[in-house]
Amino acid sequence: MITIDGVVGVGKSTLMNIMVEEMGYTPFQEPVVNNPILDRFYYDRERYSFPLQVFFLNERFKHIKNASKIEKAVLDRSIYGDVIFAKMLNDAGEMSNEEFGIYKDLFANMIEHCQAPALMIYLEASTEEAVRRITNRGRSYELDTEIAYWERLNKEYRQYFEEYEASPVLKINVDNLDFENNPEDKEYVLSLIREEIARLKLDDENK
Ligand SMILES: Nc1ncnc2c1ncn2[C@@H]1O[C@H](COP(=O)(O)OP(=O)(O)O)[C@@H](O)[C@H]1O
Ligand SMILES: Nc1ncnc2c1ncn2[C@H]1C[C@H](O)[C@@H](COP(=O)(O)O)O1
């Protein structure tokens, strides 16, 4: 089970699709379209932070449960990334301390039953590049969100991944890598992933 994480717009879904096409992985997509409150959350974060976190926690748990039953799974975003959002929202006063306390308790209970990924691919980018990609993608609720939110998220992500040790991490800075449109960049990223898989002997484990 390989997980791809990183800030919004960094290219997680795009890379996941490449791994599906080029490496035969089975995708576990982030629930954006079928998310009943994501849009509302962006316009009223105080009201929707807590239910949104519970929604994502539950979805992530389902994905991990199902992904751990198959040989080559790739997940778009991780349960660990959710904690970054939850902490950030609590720090900003958009999720109350009581709600964050309940969230942490629920998380602690769930994580005991979650298999850690065999590899975490952390896609790192400058906030400017992430916002450029968010703008190109054009989800209206993200376009209406202030830049400071994306800056805070990036800062929290970087800090979190400096200390993350639940699994091996492959960190890739994607600021100058257009693996979506440039075949050379795509091959380069795939080679990094293949090398890491070989180094960790994940292929052997998966046989
Ligand atoms: N490496 C890349 N270089 C340039 N644009 C990219 C790259 N990867 C993805 N994109 C574009 O950036 C936007 C966000 O990509 P996406 O994969 O949906 O990000 P995420 O899943 O991390 O939010 C999309 O419009 C996508 O086409
Ligand atoms: N845990 C989360 N809290 C708040 N918002 C979240 C969380 N997980 C995902 N999101 C948002 C961020 C994006 O608007 C969409 C999808 O993420 P993406 O990085 O584009 O895959 O959901």
If you had to describe this structure to a student in words, what would you say it looks like?
Helices cover 60% and strands 11% of the residues. The chain is of the alpha/beta class. The protein has a single domain, classed as P-loop containing nucleotide triphosphate hydrolases (Rossmann fold). The chain has a 5-stranded parallel sheet with strand order 2-3-1-4-5, with helices on both faces. It is globular. 31% of the residues are buried. The model has no long low-confidence stretch (mean pLDDT 94).
Present the secondary structure layout.
Blueprint: E1 2-5, H1 12-23, E2 26-28, H2 38-43, H3 45-67, E3 73-76, H4 79-91, H5 97-111, E4 119-124, H6 127-137, H7 140-143, H8 147-163, E5 169-173, H9 183-200, H10 202-206
Parallel strand pairs: 1-3, 1-4, 2-3, 4-5
Helix pairs in contact: 3-4, 3-5, 4-5, 4-8
Bound molecules: adenosine-5'-diphosphate and ligand LDVFA3IR.
**Would you state the CATH class?**
Alpha Beta
Ends apart, CA distance between termini: 13 Å
Number of domains: 1
Largest sheet: 5 strands, parallel
Fraction in helix: 55-70%
Structural class: alpha/beta
Q: Which fold name fills CATH's third level, the topology?
A: Rossmann fold
The largest sheet has its strands arranged as 2-3-1-4-5
Strand content: 5-15%
Under CATH, the homologous superfamily reads: P-loop containing nucleotide triphosphate hydrolases
Mean of pLDDT: 94
Organism: Gracilibacillus dipsosauri
Keywords: ATP-binding, Kinase, Nucleotide-binding, Transferase
GO molecular function, one term: deoxynucleoside kinase activity
Pfam family, one: dNK
